[in-house]
Amino acid sequence: MGKHVLLVEDELNIIEAIRFLLTREGFQVDTHSNGTDASETVRALKPDLVVLDVMLPGKSGFDILEELRGHEQTADLPVLMLTARGQSRDREMAEKAGVSRFMTKPFSNAEVLTAVRDLLYVHQKKG
Amino acid sequence: MTSVNILIAVCLAYVSILFLVAFIAERAGTQGRGDWLLRSPLVYTLSLSIYCTAWTFYGAVGNAARSGLEYVTIYLGPSLVILGWWWILRRLVRIGRSHKVTSIADLISSRFGKSNTLAIVVTIMAVITVTPYIALQLQSVTLSLSFFAAAEQGVDVSTIDAEAAAFWIAVGLAVFTVLFGTRNLNVNERHHGVVIAVAVEAVVKLLALLAVGFFVVWGLAGGISETLARIDASDLGRWQTDSSRWATLTFLSAAAFLCLPRMFQVMIVENDDERHLQIASWAFPLYLMLMSLFVVPIAVIGLDVLPEGSNPDLFVLSLPLSEGREGLAMLSFLGGFSSATSMVIVATLALSTMVSNHLVMPVFLYRHRDGASQSGDVRETVILARRLSIMGIISLGYVYYKMSGGSGALTAIGLISFAGVAQFLPAMIGGILWRGATRYGALSGLIIGFVLWVFTMLLPSFGPGAVLSAETFETGLLGLGLLRPQALFGIEGLDPMVHAVFWSLLLNVSAFVAVSLFTFPNPMERLQGAQFVNVFEHSGQARGWNASVAESEDLMIMAQRILGAQEARHLFASQARAQGLTGSLPEPTPDFLQRLERELAGSVGAATAHAMISQIVGGTSVSVHDLMAVADESAQMLEYSSKLEAQSRELSQTAAQLREANTKLVQLSAQKDEFLSQISHELRTPMTSIRSFSEILRDTKGMGPIEKAKYANIIHVEAIRLTRLLNDLLDLSVLENGQVTLNKQTGTLSELLDRALATAQASSSRDLKINRRHVNETIMLDTDLDRLSQVFINLITNAQKYCAAPHPELTIEVNDLGGVISIDFLDNGLGIPKDARELLFEKFSRIGAQDSNGAGLGLAICREIMSRLGGDITYLAQAKGTAFRVVLPQSKALAAQ
Predict the structure, then answer these.
(1) Residue B310 is part of which domain span?
(2) Which of B685, B707, B851 to mutate to test the interface with A (most CBs of A within 10 A)?
(3) What CA dihedral angle connects B104, B110, B111 and B114, to 10 degrees?
(4) Which residues, other chains included, contact B797 with Cβ-Cβ below 8 Å and sequence gap of 6+?
(5) Best mutation site among B679, B683, B684, B713 for testing chain A: the one with the most A CBs within 10 Å?
């Protein structure tokens, strides 16, 4: 059974693309498309990794990340953050909030896969 | 031979004439007549001639016969002062007048905070220093009288018993001065009678000396050329001139001219008009020149003609007498008598003023604290004090005459006085020019200078063995070699006079400056110092109150008006407490009035405060000058405050503008950042899908045709989205920058709506029911129809996309609102949440981000377009669903038919 990845993203086409990529590599992928109850969903589904968008309806990715880090269960959960805003300030905010890896859209598929594998591998070794 | 009795009779007659002149002048003065003479610069200049006493009348010739041209220095000093130091004199006169100064003691004490100690010290010093001078007059009159007596009896002068004569002359002078000087009590008033008598005497002594001179040159020598020849032949020109003595003498006579109490009296206290100084500045040197014109001829001829051993001090008398010119000798005697009496009168007058004001009255007032309010008592006391001091001062002169043996040369005695009064110079000049001078500085300088003068000049003048023992002269005070009276600190070989002046003034000035620098003036000193030093900047008004008639209640009422009731009550009560009174109203003492004036000045300005108090005190009525000052002050204050107000208004306006600009800049900067982030997001999102799926298509082997088609379609849709986004951005940018050119066309609203609906529905698969009332739509439009259509399409498309009703409907309503027409687009959805409405027309604002195709630029573009077309687009809050209203001005819409 592959590792469990939760994708929190509101752009349908991007969900489609990432799901395709990760499923093809053998990961088990769930998706969630609004920010309001994202951190509850994470705690409920207990994924091995979260891929998190920044601009989400209801709640921003930064706030969700802070909620995750503030919760015991998800404090160490690897989070890969994706954003289309692309300002350096966003990267700083993400790092401050405790992101595991930060990537700017558009990305190459290979990059995303490498990042996901790295995060899961490092996390596994640590855990 | 003129008998001494006739001489005395002539003197009495002369004095009676002087009395008459003085009496008439005084009467005229009080009646305001004869001002052309009494207050003329001529009389002022002549009165200054009391500088020329018997010492100069007799002594100048004596000095010339003994020491050559040295006598010139005595005339040189005053001439230099009045010509070159005119500005100092003017300053002194202005201070004297504005502060109602009565004497030099008053001036110095007043300058240094009205210090009583200083007044007493200066008074005592003045009495002691002037005493030899009075003795000098006594000696000269005695000498001249004895000379006549000796001539009458045909014996030598030295055999005459001069002491008895001197005593009776002293008594006569005292009576004379008492009668002259104390008829009139008020020293603040000027003594017009005395001044005019002095002026008459000035004329007499000048005429007498000139007459003797003419007689000597033309009667004895036989003309000018012969006189000059005899002068050349004499020893006079060969006298050694000691330059240090010359410089010292010139300086001393200059200092004495300023500091002698009698000079201060006529020059400053009796001055009627500052401008008189200008005339005196050339007329007085001229008078001095005439006085000295025949000094050398008389001395030379006297030495030639008269027997060896004749007293050169008496050449003026003995020369005419030796030739049997008794009338001329009599005139000459009267000249000398005039010189002596005028000096004694004015000098004792000035001194008695100081003594009674600064020594007697303070003691009297202290001992009669309760009775002092009865003015009669005080007037009597003052007159008595004056008369007693006059007698006392002349007695002192007599005692000095007796002690010094009546033998010294006139010049030497005069110089002792000069050096004594010169000690006042540092405190006086320093006081009016230097604000930093303090009372302790003045006091130390005066005392040190005075002590040194006494030790090095006054006491030695009695001769070795009289006061100071001969050993003291030889080995110094207490056997200390450094303290020899004529060789202080081991400096020997100087002329005793130069030595004394040098040391006393050097240490006087040093102490004055050093102590002043190390002490701080008290507030009163500061105030007075500032007024004295800046006398020309201050108004000519005397600042001092003399009010016994002032009503404290009136003052209270006025003060309440200006300071406010509470403050005024507080001030008055505290002052009353300070005065030791139980009530809440203080006595209107000068101090209190001055304090009150200062308080009021803080509120209404100095000139106003002064005018207000003088109105109530009544002592001085408000002058036009005061009122002008009030007006000036108020105008300046008004102008200043309105200027300040304008400035502060301007400043706060600028500050507000700056704040506004700053806020705007911050907002703009945040907007720009946000805008860039938004654009970035809108561009990157479709690009992400495109890149990702293109890679998937490229890299995935064995993909089925259905999947391939699906992914290719996603790429296609996203590429279109990108294109549309770029178009919108460009469109908006063009609209916002106002670079758009409107393409005006005409058409009906109905047709335009038809076209818009067709276009919108073609690009959407979603069903939307449209409700229209075509009747109202028959409106002719004359505007950019394409742009307007763009707005309509946008609104219809939004309804298609976002209307959440199960059976979405859109109602289009057209209304004529009078002046404008409105086109409303209402759907049956949920409407837009209240908090989101504000941002509705902003760029990139999206209500719910579910639909990924809109970048949030549509409504922003609509708003820009409507604003270009002269209309507007708004959200209708009162509608149930989502509702937009497009408004067009009537002018753009022509009614069909």
Answers:
(1) 4-368+375-406
(2) B685
(3) 140
(4) B760, B763, B764, B858
(5) B684
**Secondary structure in 3-state letters for B399-437:** HHHHHCCCCCCHHHHHHHHHHHHCCHHHHHHHHHHCCCC
pLDDT at A6: 94
Domain membership of residue B576 (yes or no) is yes
ipTM of the complex, rounded to two decimals: 0.92
DSSP one-letter code for B622: P
| pLDDT range class, residue B543, cuts 50, 70, 90 | very low
What chain A holds in terms of domains, given with CATH numbers, is: 4-119 (3.40.50.2300)
**Least CB-CB distance to A109: which of B677, B695, B849?**
B695
Residue B690 contacts A where some CB pair is shorter than 8 Å: yes
B233 and B156 together in one domain: yes
Of the pLDDT bands very low, low, confident and very high (cuts 50, 70, 90), residue A50 is very high
Q: Parallel, antiparallel, or unpaired for β A4-8 and A49-53? A: parallel
Pair (B51, B188) in one structural domain: yes
Q: What is the CATH number of the domain that holds B699?
A: 1.10.287.130
Indicate the helix (H) or strand (E) that contains B782.
strand B779-783
pLDDT in tens, B368-425: 655 444 444 556 677 788 888 888 888 888 888 887 765 555 566 778 888 888 999 8
Contacts with A60 from chain B: Cβ below 8 Å? none
pLDDT band at B713 (very low <50, low <70, confident <90, very high): very high
Cα separations in angstroms, B855 against B675, B800, B802, B845: 12, 16, 14, 8
Of residues B841, B871, B868, the one with CA closest to residue B735? B868
Q: Report the gap between the CA of A46 and the closest CA in chain B (Å).
A: 26
Closest CA to B88 of B272, B265, B281: B281
- On whether both B748 and B708 belong to a single domain, the answer is no
Give B733 to chain A, closest Cα distance, Å. 21
**Which chain A residues have a beta carbon less than 8 Å from that of B846?**
none
CB atoms under 10 Å from CB of B289, counted, come to 11
The mean per-residue pLDDT over the stretch B256-274 comes to 84
Number of structural domains in chain B = 4
Average pLDDT of chain B? 78
**Which residues 704-763 of B have a C-beta within 8 angstroms of A?**
714, 717-718
**Are B774 and B839 part of one and the same domain?**
yes
Q: Which of A10, A14, A87 sits opposite B689 (nearest CB)?
A: A14
B715 and B845 together in one domain: no
What is the chain B residue with the closest CA to A87? Answer: B677
Distance from CA of A20 to the nearest CA of B (A): 9
> What is the percent of chain B where pLDDT is above 70?
80
Closest C-alpha among B422, B410, B409 to residue B498 = B422
- The shortest C-alpha distance from B682 to chain A (Å) reads 8
Whole-number pLDDT of residue B549: 41
Query: Which of A87, A106, A109 is facing B696, going by the closest CB pair?
Result: A109
Residue B568 lies in a domain: yes
- pLDDT-based confidence at residue B711 (cuts at 50, 70, 90): very high
B chain contacts of residue A104, beta-carbon cutoff 8 Å: 684
- pTM of the model as a whole: 0.54
B799 falls within a domain: yes
Tell me: pLDDT of B756 over 80.
yes
Which CATH number is B745's domain given? 3.30.565.10
- Pick the last residue of a domain from B359, B390, B406: B406
pLDDT of residue B467: 61
User: Does B91 share its domain with B26?
Assistant: yes
3-state SS class at B662: helix
Q: Which of B672, B704, B739 is the last residue of a domain?
A: B739
* Residue B842 and residue B705 share a domain: no
Q: Is the pLDDT of residue B548 over 60?
A: no
B201 and B340 in a single domain? The answer is: yes
Q: Name B597's Cβ contacts closer than 8 Å, sequence gap at least 6.
A: B543, B545, B606, B609, B610, B613
Residues of B in contact with A13 (CB under 8 A): 686, 689, 693, 714, 717-718, 852
Which residues in chain B are contacts of A88 at CB distance < 8 A?
none
Check which CATH number belongs to the domain holding B256 and give it: 1.20.1730.10
Local confidence band at B545 (pLDDT 50, 70, 90 cut-offs): low
Answer yes or no: is B575 within a domain: yes
Cβ–Cβ contact B687 with A under 8 A: yes
pLDDT at site B846: 64
